[in-house]
Amino acid sequence: MQRIPEPELMTDPQQARAYAAADFEQPHAMFVRLFQDAFPDAPAHGCVLDLGCGPGDITFRFARAHPGCSVHGIDGSEAMLCLAEQALASDQLLRGRVRFFKKILPVAPPPLKRYDIIISNSLLHHLAEPRVLWKSVSDCAAPGAPVFVMDLKRPESRQAARRTAELYAACGPEVLRRDFYNSLLAAFTIDEIREQLADAGLAGFTVREVSDRHVLISGRMAR
What we know:
- By secondary structure, this protein is an alpha/beta fold.
- It has helices at 13-21, 25-38, 57-65, 78-89, 131-140, 158-169, 174-186, 190-199; strands at 46-51, 69-75, 98-102, 117-121, 146-152, 206-209, 214-220.
- It is built from eight helices and seven strands, in the order ααβαβαββαβαααββ.
């Protein structure tokens, strides 16, 4: 099945609220756990960049799991960042360590010149041109920095995408069911991601399936 791109930004407030209210406990908890498994020696102190942070759930989870780190979340959607800022305002423990910035990829200029860790969840499939993600990774990561990207993987057919959407989003609002189905159609295959990494000079990164709908890209920047 050929990829069918979707809009890069979730700008509709209703769409953003539906996404923020959705139950992503399982994949988001898995994200943090898999990072810790992949990088048990990751910097305990430093600054983390979350590319495409959305309403901030991964940003907050990562900050809580790594209390010695500060975390910067960037996103291009004002609607998403508004929800992230609202959630941050109610969390006194994180307000000093988490910040959000409105930025469009490639990130220029980044909030900091270099980051000790780069993370990203469910951003890649939104991008019309995926190279902007890998350019941002290369531009923003410090030498030796862990890079950890999780995204959807494209099913073999529309029928398979519908089955996956029905399995995981059937109880959600209509806007979420529609968006999840469209996101599956917009996702990349493992082979496509490997080609992207090779073109970006990141061929040493690992690409692997971690669930029936998720692919994980991880590696360290060259020193």
